[in-house]
Amino acid sequence: MRTREDYQEEIDLINKTNQGKEKKKEELSEQHKEIIEKIEKEHDVELEKLKVEKQKEISDLVKKYDDKPNELAKEVARILSAEYIRNEREK
Amino acid sequence: MFRKILILIISISITFAPLTASAQETSVLEGKVTAIDEGAPSPYSGILLDSIAASKMLVDKKYIKLELELELRKEFHKDLAEKRLAYDLLKTDHDSLRKIHEDTLILKENQISYLNDALKDEMSDYSHWWLASGIALGIILSVAVFYASVEIRE
Question: How confident is the model at residue B19 (pLDDT cuts 50, 70, 90)?
Answer without folding.
Answer: very low
